[in-house]
Here is the input.
Amino acid sequence: MRQSDGEGKMPVEYAETLTQDWLQSKWLLIDGECQKVVACSKARGYKRLR
Here is the structure.
């Protein structure tokens, strides 16, 4: 199990350079999943996600 540094912080084991392309691809992925959830809720007639 990983140990914190005593101040509640965990060491970083992996870092990725954030680029415009990375951000765009993640935004498209999240937006697509959101659209699926909304479409499903509308199809089932739920009122909260309309």
Summary: The chain is about 50% helix and 0% strand. The CA atoms of residues 16 and 22 lie 10 Å apart. Helices lie at 20-44.
